[in-house]
TrEMBL record:
One of its GO terms (molecular function) is beta-amylase activity. Keywords: Carbohydrate metabolism, Glycosidase, Hydrolase, Polysaccharide degradation. This is Beta-amylase. It is an enzyme of class 3 (hydrolase). Belongs to the glycosyl hydrolase 14 family. GO terms for biological process: polysaccharide catabolic process. It catalyses: Hydrolysis of (1->4)-alpha-D-glucosidic linkages in polysaccharides so as to remove successive maltose units from the non-reducing ends of the chains.
Length: 532
């Protein structure tokens, strides 16, 4: 089916609401390169008309996206599923935020042909206290998505967020107040509240229970509560592995994002549990003095590598025997943590009719330097002569997880504050590791820009694209703004439609559906739901 969205915004004050009409007709299929594209129940093209007397009309022809992607010419069995992320603050403790606007947004996405939405589900909202879990608000939202006819990718967030402000559960924070060493700590003694230290995964520091035991109960509770949605509405479950849900240490400055900070980061190994682990490893290695702490010459988040003795391009400590010892241990702790959570996720969800996934970061700052400091401080031992992503990919495939990789909207040579960044080369390295190990790849973007959309299209149209699923981040006022939503609509349309004349669309005027446009556009109070 083909849907044409006719949007009328009336400027006169006596007309408080505008409406959207959807007109249906039939479509077929075509080829893009070697990728066969099957047209679903809706498809999209956005065109603007001139306005007079305060009247403006916007028409969008809507289309579903099913892009078969393959690594070889003959593999046509795996369509690329297109999702859109819901706002990070879509749910508060007691309610669905901007519920009416969310409902209109879901309907707009369905008409556009989007397959589903990604739901960020926060541990602290469900289990603010240790005694019980309360899924009621998220169950209501899942039902809203189901009634909209969309699928759901659920992201189980075990971490906190600075913006929007979502802390760790209150009972976890009280434990951390009494025992701050359950949190990651840097050389200066600053504590990170992003997530629990990986060193306590199997230690009974949470009122006599281990974090892994608590996570398992949380997963089991989710499985039980959402059983009626699994396999029909819920088709994918993503497990949080660290800060921002990603497999990494919280090595960047507080309230920063790894793709925006130009710094190198700082090692997070100074809580007493990490130090005890390091000391034990050094003693087994035969050099106890190396276990007294992390590198003493890597101390500032935002310094240049050449001002750091450890990360200096030439003759830096990172390429000494001590550097190799420390970086091997540090990266291994990250891998062990990831393996524990992925194996737990497979244990709880592996027999369910859902796809399992988890996210890695795109740590592109200083990627073109020899020492790759931003990756090293985050736990990826990726330097000249050593692939820091091969073992990560092997861990994912061993546990039957797909890898979520962000940054498909970054262009060649993307550079942050002169930091020798190359997001495209790093993305290629990660994808190569996935290809080598047979890991399914799910993609995400990190910005809402026209150039970013063009870059995503290049990846999706590539004959060698490894993508099996793509989640466009994220829904909100900016997403539905006049500056962005037409770009997104054209993006969806471009994935499968040849150019159509307006008369082709308007030839069939049956099957109209009406929606108030103000909720979907992000005007007025709806802008409150826009996250970072």
């Amino acid at each position: 089916m083909e849907f044409t969205l006719m949007q009328t915004v009336v400027a006169t004050p006596e007309l408080a609401r505008s409406r959207v009409s959807v007109i249906c007709s039939c479509v077929g299929r075509r080829m893009v390169g070697r990728n066969q594209i099957d047209f679903g129940p809706a498809r999209t093209a956005l065109k603007r008309r001139s306005a007079s007397s305060g009247l403006r009309s916007v028409r969008a022809e809507m289309a579903a996206v099913t892009l078969p992607s393959s690594r070889s010419e003959g593999d046509m069995a795996h369509p690329v599923r297109l999702f859109v992320g819901l706002p990070l603050d879509v749910v508060s403790k007691c309610a669905i935020n901007q519920e009416k606007a969310i409902a209109y947004g879901l309907r707009a996405l369905k008409l556009l042909g989007i397959q589903g939405v990604e739901l960020p589900l926060w541990w602290s909202i469900v289990q603010p206290e240790s005694s019980a879990t309360n899924w009621s608000v998220y169950l209501a939202l899942a039902d809203l998505v189901r009634r909209a006819g969309l699928q759901l990718r659920v992201s189980l967030h075990l971490h906190s967020s600075a913006k929007p402000a979502v802390p760790l559960p209150s009972w976890i924070s009280r434990i951390a107040d009494a025992n701050p060493d359950v949190l990651f700590t840097d050389l200066a003694g600053r504590r990170s509240h992003d997530c629990l230290s990986f060193a306590v995964d199997d230690l009974p520091v949470l009122n006599g229970r281990t974090p892994m035991e608590v996570y398992e109960d949380f997963f089991l509770s989710f499985r039980s509560a959402f059983s009626e949605f699994v396999g029909n509405t819920i088709t994918e479950i993503s497990v949080s592995l660290g800060p921002n849900g990603e497999l990494r240490y919280p090595s960047f400055p507080p309230n920063s994002e790894n793709h925006q900070s130009g710094g190198i980061g700082v090692f997070q190994c100074y809580d007493k549990y990490m130090l005890a682990n390091l000391q034990k490893h050094a003693e087994e290695y035969g050099n106890p003095l190396w276990g007294l702490g992390g590198p003493h010459d890597a101390t500032a988040y935002n310094q240049n590598p050449d001002t750091s003795g450890f990360f200096r391009e030439n003759h830096g400590s990172w390429e000494t025997p001590y550097g190799n010892f420390f970086l091997t241990w540090y990266s291994e702790q990250l891998l062990q943590h990831g393996n524990r959570l992925l194996s737990l996720g497979h244990k709880v969800f592996g027999d369910m009719p859902v796809k399992l996934s988890a996210k890695v970061p795109l740590l592109h700052n200083w990627y073109m330097s020899r020492s790759h400091p931003a990756e090293l401080t985050s736990g990826f031992y990726n330097v000249e002569g050593r692939d820091g992503y091969d073992a990560v990919a092997a861990m994912f495939v061993r546990n039957h997880f797909a890898m979520i990789v962000p940054g498909f909207d970054f262009a060649d040579g993307f550079n942050t504050q002169g930091s020798l960044s190359d997001a495209e080369l790093l993305l290629s390295q990660i994808l190569e590791a996935c290809h080598k190990n047979g890991v399914r790849v799910f993609g995400e973007n990190m910005s809402l820009t026209k150039l970013g959309i063009e870059r995503i299209k290049r990846h999706l149209f590539s004959d060698a694209s490894p993508l099996r699923s793509f989640t466009y981040q994220r829904m909100g006022a900016n997403f539905f703004s006049p500056e962005h939503f037409p770009l997104f609509t054209d993006f969806v349309r471009s994935l499968e439609l040849p150019e159509l004349d307006a008369d082709d669309v308007l030839s069939n005027m049956g099957g109209k559906v009406s929606l108030p446009i103000d909720a979907a556009s992000g005007n007025g109070s709806n802008r409150l739901m826009q996250p970072v």
